[in-house]
């Protein structure tokens, strides 16, 4: 039986990536997964693990090249927040910390409000507030 899910992302500069996510308000597990080559990013109330690995370490695990994030998207990492204001705030923090976005926060389909930003390594993050009272059945 499967017990956990970890998301693993390659990063060019581990120290810069840790600083980026710290500026966004994320925390790291300081006891596990925290080495010179990796960092254990914790997300949400359930502490979903996103492991950040320097590129040589990531390549060693996958035994393959790393895809170029600036040429397309392989995955969109979505973060649920509790309000539209949190979407706006996280988008602003991402830009201030060195990330980028060409997707301004907006309402979608009448019940979602969100924004996509790109981290320092080109990974796409989708910040969403879901108004469950307006969700279609």
TrEMBL record:
Keywords: Dioxygenase, Oxidoreductase. The lineage of its organism: Bacteria, Pseudomonadati, Bacteroidota, Cytophagia, Cytophagales. SUPFAM superfamilies: Glyoxalase/Bleomycin resistance protein/Dihydroxybiphenyl dioxygenase. Residues 3-130 form the VOC domain. InterPro entries: Glyas_Bleomycin-R_OHBP_Dase (IPR029068), Glyas_Fos-R_dOase_dom (IPR004360), VOC_core (IPR037523). Coiled coil: none annotated. It comes from Adhaeribacter arboris. It comes from the Bacteria. One of its GO terms (molecular function) is dioxygenase activity. PANTHER family: BLR2408 PROTEIN (PTHR36503:SF2), BLR2520 PROTEIN (PTHR36503). This is Extradiol dioxygenase.
